Amino acid sequence: MADLELVPVPTRILTDKDNIVDIIEQYAKDKVGPNDVISVAESVVAITQGRITRPEDLKPGLLARVMCRFVPQKGSLSSVYGMQAAMNMEGEWRFFFAMVVGLLAKIVGKNGVFYELAGEQAALIDDVTGTMPPFDKHIVYGPKEPERVAQEIKERLGCYGATVADVNDLKRSRIVGTSDGLKPDLLARILIDNPFGNASQKTPIVIIKNYAQAQAQTLG
Predict the structure, then answer these.
(1) Domain range holding 179?
(2) Is the overall model pTM greater than 0.85, yes or no?
(3) How crowded is the C-beta side of 32, counted as CA atoms within 13 Å?
């Protein structure tokens, strides 16, 4: 495989007053080439879209209080506020149905059914402390139209492609959206070690250098 290099791009603190494509152009334009892919953390895309809420603005119901107990503690849905926020987006009874079916599926050894049925917010929502300050006290929803965002980044920067990614330090790498022509499974493997720094590092953008050659080799 071609010599890939992951180049984190420092930015200032980004807020819901920013446009993520403008920010990437400002900070990454001089660092990206025609064979490169720009990757950006999904939570930061969501923040710039204003897809945030404060826990104190939510009113958790009984269903959220019960269902959050069935989620592993490291998950955003283990918080009653994270659970209620996701249920508000996807529907309470959809979540309840997904939880029941998911628990039954686990009994027969099949995992991941809950997230397949509950909707994208079940997997994408970030509870408090899950993202960069000053929004570490907020719940952050998944981004809107990530494919459109990625395509706009590609067209603006003139790079090989762009992707919006949900990656964490638990070796979980999910590609939320890409521009045309990219291989999500390859991108997920490349980003598996979480090169993003969404906290004090302020590096929510990562350039994947020489990606075009790497994808060509996998296809060949």
Answers:
(1) 5-50+143-219
(2) yes
(3) 29
